[in-house]
Specification:
By secondary structure, the chain is an all-alpha fold. The chain has 2 domains: about 10-85, no CATH class; about 95-245. The protein is built from 14 helices and no strands. Helix 1 (about 15-25) packs across helix 4, helix 7 runs parallel beside helix 9 and helix 11 packs parallel to helix 13 (about 215-230). The longest helix is centred in the middle third of the chain and has 17 residues, at about 135-155. The protein is globular and about 55 Å long. It starts with 12 loop residues before the first helix and ends with a helix.
Length: about 250
Amino acid sequence: MTPRPAKSAPHSVDGKVASAITWLKRHSTKRTLAGMARYAISSDNALGVSVADIRVLAKRLGRNHELADALWDTGVYEARMLTSFVAEPERVTPAQMDRWCRDFDNWAICDTLCFHLFDRTPHAWQKVAQWCGRREEFVKRAAFALLWGLTAHDKQAGDERFIQSLRFIERAASDDRNFVKKAVNMALRAIGKRNLALNAAAVAVARRLADSPEAAARWVGKDALRELTSVGVIRRLATRRRAVNA
């Protein structure tokens, strides 16, 4: 008699993936799925689970790098979102980052991986430099979403790294694709809100962009200038500097 195929053990990686998908399906709603469509989040492979619920499941699963890779390979949107919170940043390889990045098909999965995983890896700065010149829309967005994340999470980086990255921003600002130019704009604004010295450097770039003959670059520059030269931002940065020097 031919033996029946063994079912995935519940504690194996395959078993955990199956269990996670089942949990996600139970917590999916048509309302959430419809909301994703309104925010231009591709729903071809989505179930309709809120980010809050995804994070609840991620906390239950804990860090497990093999599980994260297997979740990504399902192609299910929410499972891939789980990867952001389950993967172990120190074990993420440059090849994995490239592979996952090539699969990005919407801004939400791009930004979530960049803000919650990629910016904590040892390869983050290397990937900003590599991806900022790529043509693919969400790979290029990833460069600037990652740079944006680094302004908040890389507490050890000196100003020089961010100043050098302003060159990438200035070069990419003429890209008029919506998801690219918005990420470029956010990265510029985030750098300019890190401290007063970087504010001055970012404002100088924003002023040049605001005078550009390219419509996308003008938008990036003018929009960034409104925030970076505002009284509120300057006051917060000055207060922060006084606190550091006290």
